[in-house]
Amino acid sequence: MKTPNVTTAAEAAREKACTTQAIYNALDRGDLNEVRMGGIRLILKDAAYEAYQVKATGGRTHKRYQDKHNAEEE
């Protein structure tokens, strides 16, 4: 029997350069497909996973970024 190609939320977050919460939010929205095994949510590495891009949500800007951005404007 062939094992499906799956990954954990932490591994997906590393691959997509985002947080695990962003991955869980994508699962909740239906942007990514999942399979549950013993209470663990595993992400299917299918076409939806390959096409998924992290959505910028307009979170707060960190001071480190503000300082760098202000220096570039001067």
Helix segment count? Answer: 4
Instruction: Provide the helix percentage.
Output: 40-55%
The fraction of residues in strands falls at: 5-15%
Mean pLDDT: 83
Largest sheet: 3 strands, antiparallel
Q: What is the CA-based Rg, rounded?
A: 16 Å
Low-confidence stretches: none
Number of domains: 1
Identify the strand order in the major beta sheet: 1-3-2
- Label the structural class: alpha+beta
Please give a structural write-up.
This protein has four helices and three strands. By secondary structure, it is α+β, with helices and mostly antiparallel strands. The chain has one domain (6-73). It is elongated. Strands 1-3-2 form a three-stranded antiparallel beta sheet. It has helices at 9-16, 20-29, 47-51, 63-73; strands at residues 6-7, 34-37, 40-44. The longest helix has 11 residues, at 63-73.
Provide a short characterization of the protein structure:
It contains four helices and three strands; from the N terminus they run βααββαα. The protein is α+β, with helices and mostly antiparallel strands and 74 residues long. It has one domain (6-73).
Keywords:
74 residues, elongated, alpha+beta, three-stranded antiparallel beta sheet, 46% helix
Q: Helices and strands in order, then pairings?
A:
Elements: E1 6-7, H1 9-16, H2 20-29, E2 34-37, E3 40-44, H3 47-51, H4 63-73
Antiparallel strand pairs: 1-3, 2-3
